[in-house]
Design brief:
Blueprint (H helix, E strand, L loop, with lengths): L14 H8 L28 H14 L1 H27 L14 H25 L1 H8 L3 H34 L10 H29 L2 H20 L7 H10 L1 H7 L14 H23 L3
């Protein structure tokens, strides 16, 4: 007599079939009617990101790191401090400055202060590669071009505003301090070049440093390159005594950054070379080329 066999257990329903029945349409966020799976709505709103989000992120970064406070603080100290010291020394000398531009006294402080803007421009990009923060940045915003563009816009506005304010303060103080030395009131064109023009040039110089920092990806190396570009041409020209190098010496003088800064004060170091607003177009062209290279390398290289 055969022993009765126990009933076979029913096979567990296939999970894939159950999921297909619950979500018949691929990617459908809602289950089918009568499905055992509950609906779920994320509490986090999903929005399409744009440049405004990247700008807000970069603004949060640049205002919250210590390097911004220190570099801009030293910049203000140099531009305003050296400017006041220069004005006080000249005013105390009782020198006759008839026909001189009182705004030109701010050149010395801005030449030193431009090194702070260069440093901040490099740190805006290169420091993230040193700390590894660039990986988080790229995960949050996979569009690399958008990240670099946001950094450039935020930095340019910060550098321009700070330079414009400091140059204007120094210019006003010099006009007041040197009034007794026969200095005439600057014209509207001189004010425009000595404040807005010089602020645009310094901010673009910082943008050039930002692009170099993005390409080099090393803070110390990029800062060294930019400080060399600022001072080396003028120093080399000073020691070229050979007559055969006269043309090279003259070109280095004319197109050195210190001379281009002095052009905005109608006080060029040479009798030829850039004049008027020429330095602004020169630095704009160089910065545009540097950014083209920075964008190209950013898309090709890994973070």
């Amino acid at each position: 007599m055969s022993t009765p066999q126990p009933p076979m257990p029913q096979a567990a329903p296939d999970r894939q079939q159950a999921a297909t029945a619950a979500y018949p349409a691929s990617g459908s966020p809602h289950p089918a009617s009568g499905s055992p799976y509950p609906t779920y709505t994320s509490p986090i709103p999903v929005v399409r990101t744009h440049l405004g989000h990247a700008l807000a992120s970069e603004w949060t970064k640049i205002k919250s790191v210590r390097s911004t406070i220190w570099t801009l603080g030293v910049f203000l100290l140099l531009v305003i401090g050296v400017g006041l010291l220069t004005g006080a020394v000249v005013a105390a000398s009782d020198a006759d400055l008839s026909g001189e531009n009182a705004l030109s006294m701010g050149f010395f402080g801005l030449l030193l202060g431009s090194m702070c803007i260069i440093t901040l421009g490099v740190l805006t990009t290169a420091s993230e590669y040193g700390t590894g923060m660039i990986r988080t940045t790229m995960v949050a915003c996979p569009s690399r071009a958008r990240v670099l563009a946001a950094k450039a816009v935020v930095f340019f506005l910060v550098a321009f505003v700070v330079t414009l304010v400091s140059a204007s303060v120094v210019g006003i103080l010099h006009v007041v301090m040197l009034e007794g030395n026969g200095v005439a009131q600057p014209s509207g064109g001189e004010w425009l070049k000595g404040t807005v023009g010089i602020a645009l040039y310094v901010a673009l110089l910082g943008l050039l440093s930002l692009a170099v920092g993005s390409m080099i990806r090393h803070s110390a190396g990029a800062i060294t390159i930019m400080i060399g570009a600022l001072l080396a041409p003028l120093v080399l020209a000073l020691f070229m005594f050979s007559a055969s190098l006269e043309d090279v010496r003259q070109a280095l003088f004319e197109y050195s950054i210190p001379n281009q800064l002095s052009v905005f004060y109608a006080n060029s170091l040479t009798r030829s070379g850039p004049s008027g607003w020429d330095p602004l177009w020169i630095i704009l062209g160089v910065t545009a080329v540097a950014f083209a290279g920075a964008f190209a390398l950013l898309e090709k290289r890994d973070v």
